[in-house]
C-alpha cells in the first residue's frame, strides 16, 4: 500500500500458502535504509521462516524504515490471518516519492504471474 510517501510492505497470501506455517520473522530496525530488492541483486530486508523453509524478504521500493510491525515479529503466524491488512511487516519512507511504484506489478499482473507458475 502507498499513502503519500509512506509504503506499507508485506507478503502475499500466495507466498504464505507456499511457505506454510510461519514461525520466525526478522525485520530491519527503524531508521534502517532498505533498497528495492530481488533475488538477482540480493537486496533483501529481512527473512521469514516457516516449517518448510527460510525465505528472504524483498522490498518493491527503496527508502527508510519508519515503522515495523512488532506484533508480527512476536507472533508471525498472525501474518497469515490478514496479510493485506493487520499482517503488514514494515512501513518505509520512500527515497523517490515521485516515482514510487516504477516496475512494481499491479495486483492483477501478480495474480496472472503466479497462476502461470
Helix proportion of residues, in percent? 10-25%
Strand order of the largest sheet: 1-2-8-7-4
Task: Give the CA-CA distance, first to last residue.
Answer: 25 Å
Per DSSP E runs of 2 or more residues, the count of β-strands stands at 8
Task: Return residue spans where pLDDT drops below 50 for at least 5 consecutive residues.
Answer: none
Q: Could you say which overall geometry the principal axes of the C-alpha atoms support?
A: globular
Number of helices: 3
Please identify the top-level CATH class. Mainly Beta
Mean pLDDT score: 87
Estimate the strand proportion.
25-35%
Look at the structure and name the CATH superfamily: RNA polymerase II/Efflux pump adaptor protein, barrel-sandwich hybrid domain
* Topology pattern, helix = H, strand = E: EEHEEEEEHEH
- Named CATH topology: OB fold (Dihydrolipoamide Acetyltransferase, E2P)
Amino acid at each position: 500500500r502507498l499513502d503519500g510517501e509512506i509504503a506499507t510492505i508485506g507478503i502475499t497470501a500466495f507466498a504464505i500458502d507456499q511457505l506454510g506455517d510461519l514461525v520466525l520473522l526478522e525485520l530491519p530496525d527503524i531508521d534502517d535504509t532498505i533498497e528495492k530488492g530481488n533475488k538477482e541483486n540480493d537486496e533483501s530486508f529481512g527473512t521469514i521462516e516457516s516449517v518448510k523453509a527460510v525465505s528472504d524478504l524483498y522490498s518493491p521500493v527503496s527508502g527508510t524504515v519508519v515503522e515495523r510491525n512488532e506484533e508480527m515479529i512476536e507472533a508471525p503466524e498472525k501474518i497469515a490471518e490478514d496479510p493485506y491488512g493487520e499482517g503488514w511487516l514494515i512501513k518505509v519512507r520512500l527515497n523517490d516519492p515521485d516515482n514510487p511504484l516504477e516496475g512494481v506489478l499491479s495486483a492483477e499482473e501478480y495474480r496472472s504471474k503466479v497462476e502461470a507458475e
